[in-house]
Amino acid sequence: MNKINLDLDVVRTFTTGIELGSFAKAADRLGRSTSAVSAQLKKLEEQTGAELFRKAGRGLALTEAGETMLAYGRRLLELNDEAVVAVHGVELEGWVRLGLQEDFGETLLPDVLGRFARAHPKVKIEARVARNAELLDAVSGGRLDLALAWSDGSRTAHCQPLAQVPLCWVGSAHHSNTMQPGEPVPLLALDKQCLMRTIGAGALDAAGMPWRISFLGSSLASLWAAAAAGLGVTVRTELWLPPKVARIDPLPDQLPALPSLGLTLHRAQARLSPAAEALASLVTNHVVSAM
Fold this sequence. Notes:
alpha/beta
């Protein structure tokens, strides 16, 4: 049996269309006509020998084969892009200072920063985990080149919105008796000013639901431990949750619905050093893929 070599240009069109929610938008993004995009999608189905789409109302949805292709396509493109950066960017040198919130530490630090360090061994990276206000102050003061932070309404001179991330209630993956009928909602929170705590408390107040602080922690790890133990619920995103905790779907008589929260990449300057720009691109792609 002859091996099939997938056309990565076609795979990129496919994944871009899914991520943007429209192949017409993908055509604009990639600078192609809609007919060219349609031809590429047909080519991908011919190469894989499977139907990747099914009708869903007036639009299209992925088949099981399409979902599989999307997962592998993202991995193929990520490796392709990493290889290109490694080959063409091997001479990048300098110092990059990145700030991020603790929510992203478990994934961005080992994954994105690890890949960046392997591709650019001559670039020194300084990473700092801190709260929103501290990160934005450090970017504005020139003590950080980049900062990935939740959007609390504050802006810096050079900020790039990346995504709107739905918030959710998070509790134990194993304990189901966190909340008792008629009792105040037990809220888990960080001990300093916390945007998630403010949003959760505000949603409960707006719904007329009593609540109490059942745990104050100094780190996200302590918050996960308290949630896993069944001490209460907290507000976070569904992205990058550890397995010991889980999303809790809101019930009208127990928990109110929550809004989405913006995620923004802040820059110290409009145009950074080549090394900082390369890291900014990698962080942006990681976030978009996670969405």
